[in-house]
Amino acid sequence: MKKSILNIALTTILATSAMVSTSASAVEGLSANVAATSNYLWRGLEQTNGDSAISGGIDYAADSGFYVGTWASNASWADGMTYELDFYAGFGGAISEDVSYDVGFIYYAYPDETTGDADFSEVYGSISFQALTLGVSVLTSGEGADAGDTIYASADYAIALQNDAEVNLHIGSYSGDWLAEDSIDYGVSISKSGFTFGASATDLDGAAGDVKVYVAYAIDIDL
C-alpha cells in the first residue's frame, strides 16, 4: 500500500520513509527503490503483524509530470497472504513556486490471499503548500464495495532541521463502510540519509490503537 499520497511512498508506508539518491547508468526518467522496515505500517495499521518487511519498486517519470510504477512488499494481514503488489499511475506538477499537486490511480493486489476479496483500488490527489501536504484517497473498486464507499483524508507537515534531518508530522482520517472501521491515525518520524525512525498510533480500541515504533532504511536508484 505504497501511495496514499505519492510523496509518502508511503506513506505513509509506508507508509513513510525518506529516500536518498544514488547515481547509476541513466535511462531518462527510470528509477528503482528498495527499503527495509522493522514494521510495515499503512494508515497506522500493521500489514505484517508486527514483523519486518522488505520492499522495492520501479518507477518511470516523464518531464511532462506523468509517472507510472509498480511496488511490492511482503504482507500478511489476511489468510494465506504473503505479499502485496501495487500498480499506479498519475500526474504531478507545480502550480507556482510554493504550490504543487499530484493526482493518480493505484491498484493494491494480494495475489495469494485465500478469500480472493482483498484487492482494491483508489484514486488519490494531494496538494502541497511548501512543507504542508493535504491529500485524499477515494475507493474506486473492492469486493462487495461501490466506488466512493471509503475515503481517507490526510495532512502531513515536514520540518527541516539544521543537520539535514527532517521531522514529519502526520494525521489521517479513514471513513466508510468497506473492510475497516472508521479511524484516525497519527504519526511522527525523523529521517536523515535514508534512515527513518518513527511512531504511529490510531484511535481504534485494542492492539490496533497502540503506539507502534519502527525504524526503516530506503534508497532510490537512478537506472
| Number of DSSP helical runs | 0
CATH superfamily: monomeric porin ompg
Distance linking N and C termini: 23 Å
The average pLDDT value, as a whole number, equals 90
Q: What is the architecture at the second tier of CATH?
A: Beta Barrel
Q: How many structural domains does the protein architecture include?
A: 1
Q: Which radius of gyration do the C-alpha atoms yield?
A: 17 Å
Structural category is: mainly beta
Q: Report the strand count.
A: 15
Helix content: under 10%
Give me the strand/helix succession: EEEEEEEEEEEEEEE
- Dominant shape: globular
What topology, given as strand order, has the largest sheet?
A: 2-5-6-7-8-9-10-11-12-13-14-15
Question: Please, what is the oligomeric state?
Answer: single chain
Overall description:
The chain is mainly beta. The protein has one domain (21-222): monomeric porin ompg (Porin). 0% of the residues lie in helices and 57% in strands. It contains no helices and 15 strands. It has strands spanning 21-22, 30-37, 41-42, 45-46, 53-61, 66-74, 83-94, 99-109, 120-129, 132-142, 150-160, 166-176, 183-192, 195-202, 212-222. The strands form 2 sheets. The protein has a 12-stranded antiparallel barrel with strand order 2-5-6-7-8-9-10-11-12-13-14-15. A hairpin with a 2-residue loop joins strand 3 (41-42) and strand 4 (45-46). It starts with 20 loop residues before the first strand and ends with a strand.
